[in-house]
Fold this sequence. Notes:
The protein has 5 helices and 3 strands; from the N terminus they run H-H-H-E-E-E-H-H. It is of the alpha+beta class.
Amino acid sequence: xxxxxxxxxxxxxxxxxxxxxxxxxxxxxxxxxxxxxxxxxxxxxxxxxxxxxxxxxxxxxxxxxxxxxxxxxxxxxxxxxxxxxxxxxxxxxxxxxxxxxxxxxxxxxxxxxxxxxxxxxxxxxxxxxxxxxxxxxxxxxxxxxxxxxxxxxxxxxxxxxxxxxxxxxxxxxxxxxxxxxxx
Length: 183
């Protein structure tokens, strides 16, 4: 494989890596939104579930700032939302841009993005240095884990299945039962 083909392969692999991890991050955000909406009074924030990333970020910020049931999760939730918003900016630039060439220039692939802004559309350049990709990869992997861990904490704290026992209390009762049986 020549250098250009190798560089393109690495670029496409990097884009795929971000895309797959973004789906995990977004799944965690959606789970948080669902739990907050159904079990914490979040349905009072807006009439419909947020769909776009911007709407999800706004919903989660408002929920963690405003809903009393989420007070214990406020700092952790707002920090996760801040990271989600920062990652969204990078992901949007990468996913909604097009490479302007098939080889890196000075170590970076150049992209352009047509960005709508009311009546004016702008062409916005974006560069991706493959040698700096590992920091983005770690950030996305960490955020996927963090967002899904937050969703699990909310699920354990608030989601009550039919029968009235929360998942957290069910797990505790199973631990107690298992410990007693193992003695």
